[in-house]
Design a protein that fits this description.
Elements lengths: L9 H8 L2 H16 L2 E2 L7 H5 L7 E5 L24 H14 L10 H4 L3 E5 L4 E2 L11 H15 L4 E5 H5 L11 E5 L4 H4 L9 H11 L8
Parallel strand pairs: 2-3, 2-5, 5-6
Antiparallel strand pairs: 1-4
């Protein structure tokens, strides 16, 4: 696995690349991509960082691991390639945006447009084997992305963290509530949303209200 990350993330992330856990992780990922179909494409593993430079981060959305279906994952959590059918979780995200902000349901499921506005779309695990959800968990990715979250918390202030579902909520301990804003709710997956744990959270308008309170530009969702 060749690691090359730009956008001002180098000083933050490069120290991790020389640690034993990351060396083991890189070896594992390299073997998986050589012997199995894996997602996202190798050039998009670190796309979340490339699309949202360090200095631009204002909002952080945490996912678990990439979509494991063909042509879906593009390296940004909850995002799919242009023209790809929207997965159920993304449909529920867009429906909540509709009711929360009054905007139209978007045709494109590619959330690069959010990343370009300072929304870091970070999965806890950055790779997955095709058709095997969670197959690359507990190989070192969580150590790496926990470091990202912790460093963002330590070195920035006034970020809005959106933690959806039990897995994401476990990351609260990495974030300083005194320095940042933390919004939590159920996951947008149908299982959670249909139990009344997602719809109505109004996280998108709440995020923009928090940004405005800091004299920051709201996100165009």
């Amino acid at each position: 696995m060749k690691v090359s990350i730009h956008g001002g993330w180098e000083p933050v992330l490069e120290p991790e690349f020389n640690k034993p856990y990351f060396t083991d992780l890189a070896s594992f990922v390299r073997g998986e991509y050589q012997n199995h179909q894996c997602y996202p494409g190798a050039s998009e593993i670190f796309a979340a960082f490339e699309a949202c430079p360090w200095k631009s981060v204002r909002v952080v959305i945490l996912g678990q691991d990439p979509y494991h279906g063909p042509n879906q994952a593009n390296g940004l959590c909850f995002s799919v390639r242009d023209g790809v059918r929207h997965p159920p979780s993304l449909i529920n995200i867009f429906r909540e945006i509709q009711t929360d902000t009054g905007t139209a349901y978007p045709e494109s499921g590619d959330l690069t447009r959010w990343a370009q506005q300072g929304v870091l779309l970070l999965n806890a695990v950055l790779t997955v084997r095709a058709s095997e959800a969670g197959s690359h968990q507990k190989q070192g990715w969580e150590t790496f992305t926990d470091t990202v979250i912790r460093t963002l918390s330590e070195q920035k202030k006034g970020l809005v963290f959106l933690l959806w579902g039990g897995y994401a909520k476990k990351k609260i301990s990495l974030i300083s509530g005194a320095k940042h804003h933390i919004l939590t709710s159920g996951h947008p997956s149908p299982l959670s949303a249909n139990r009344g744990l997602w719809f109505g959270n109004r996280h998108f308008s709440k995020t923009n209200a928090l940004l405005r309170s800091q004299d920051d530009t709201p996100v165009t969702w």
